Amino acid sequence: MAVSVQPKNAGEPADTALGDDFVAAAERALSSGEPGLVSDADLERVLTAAVRLYAAKVETDSPPANPIAPSSVTPTEVVVTVSDMIRAAGLNLWDVSMWFRRKG
Asked: What does the H/E/C string look like for 20-83?
């Protein structure tokens, strides 16, 4: 999986391949109707890293605008994923409700 970061020095080009390998693998798995082409371990690793990074960025002075591209996922895909993440983290909807309006 390609990994890139922001350039260390101003004027250096940024590597734009960050995540491209995973996205391509996910798109192949989805378009072929075989989601198992991406292993559960790889999916867990990528989701875990993305969640941790997103949460860290939200706490900065320049938080990211959106965690997802809304036009690229269905509401069902979001709810299925978020529900399983809530369960995996040992949370419940009451816990989530306390954080829901935090951003603002």
From this structure: HHHHHHHHHHHHCCCHHHCCHHHHHHHHHHHHHHHHHHHCCCCCCCCCCCHHHCCHHHHHHHHH
The whole-angstrom separation of Cα 22 and Cα 2 is 8
pTM: 0.77
Measured distance CA(30)–CA(17) in Å, rounded: 20
| pLDDT tens, residue by residue, 29-52 | 999 999 999 999 999 999 999 999
Tokens of 29: 């798995």
CA distance 35 to 32: 8
